[in-house]
């Protein structure tokens, strides 16, 4: 059992106001027609998977099964100046022009509702608040409970349910205002963080480690040989995995790639793009709750050794609300000082129990000839 630690959940309920409804009247335009054409071709009724119920499921679980010592702190809205550190002026003009409207931003299914632009500003600002709390020493670690997610958002466009790249905004803020020169971003969402990679592609002061399901799985980027460019060559670290990869493979990648990379890089701050769609309920990968907890233990130990414990998580994906909620809780439990479980191959404990149960029946004399 580790010592008790302070962990703060940073949350602002305005993130619930982003609620695209595919049946609402959207802006007239070619993109809307094209998306409607795609949706009409589906065999099933399509609902927007990145919905407010994701956050509600997490909050409900934390009421039913509280994490001892977990503190709550309010989030806030990011300023345009803070967003402009990682997004272009023309992109921000485009996004802000959609305030109070329903619109499609891309055919990768990113849409907005009247509350979405404010929710996106609050998501990025709440990621900043989490980093500020960690850097000021007011908490040991922090978890920004936010949506819409961010890691697919590129400097110039929205993608994959993401409007603003929250983790990138938080990293850039830590560099500009909080005295953190070097930032390590660990992205364990099942999908590659193409936007975060783009933003810091040539930046030697941000190391981006991303373990994800390999192309052609969405968004199709993040190949092994994509390592950054220019001064940033070597600070992008991609670990593409086959579908169905689980705890053992993930933890080996963390221990044998992330740990030496982080020790080499020597960050002043560690951020985690924490998606929970790598859990097997989400059908892409095979990570367990113990796996998420063990990965948390590794990044926490890196933060302790390399940057005085400065560690902040931001929520990314995770669309099965049960695995999302329990995944977040398993992370918070470790951050609060709970023990770090040793993940095992799924089914092994049950097999061992079954061995113990059955084996005595077959000991001694054979029943055959
Ligand atoms: Zn994802």
Question: How would you describe this structure to a colleague?
Answer:
This protein has eleven helices and ten strands. It has 369 residues and is α/β, with parallel strands linked by helices. It has an eight-stranded parallel sheet, with helices on both faces. It has a two-stranded antiparallel sheet with strand order 3-4. It has one domain (7-361): 3-Layer(aba) Sandwich (Arginase, Chain A). It has helices at 30-40, 53-64, 80-83, 89-96, 116-136, 166-177, 194-199, 247-265, 289-306, 321-335, 348-359, and strands spanning 7-11, 71-74, 103-104, 111-112, 141-144, 183-187, 206-213, 236-241, 269-274, 311-315. The mean pLDDT is 94. The protein is globular. Helix 7 (194-199) links the parallel strand 6 (183-187) and strand 7 (206-213). It binds zinc ion. Residues 189-191, 275, 277, 316-317 line the site of zinc ion.
Q: Top keywords for this entry?
A:
Arginase, Chain A, 13% strand, 37% helix, HDACs, binds zinc ion, 369 residues, alpha/beta, single chain, eight-stranded parallel β-sheet, His_deacetylse_dom, two-stranded antiparallel ribbon
Topology:
Elements: E1 7-11, H1 30-40, H2 53-64, E2 71-74, H3 80-83, H4 89-96, E3 103-104, E4 111-112, H5 116-136, E5 141-144, H6 166-177, E6 183-187, H7 194-199, E7 206-213, E8 236-241, H8 247-265, E9 269-274, H9 289-306, E10 311-315, H10 321-335, H11 348-359
Parallel strand pairs: 1-2, 1-5, 5-10, 6-7, 6-9, 7-8, 9-10
Antiparallel strand pairs: 3-4
Helix pairs in contact: 2-10, 5-6, 8-9, 9-10
The structure holds zinc ion.
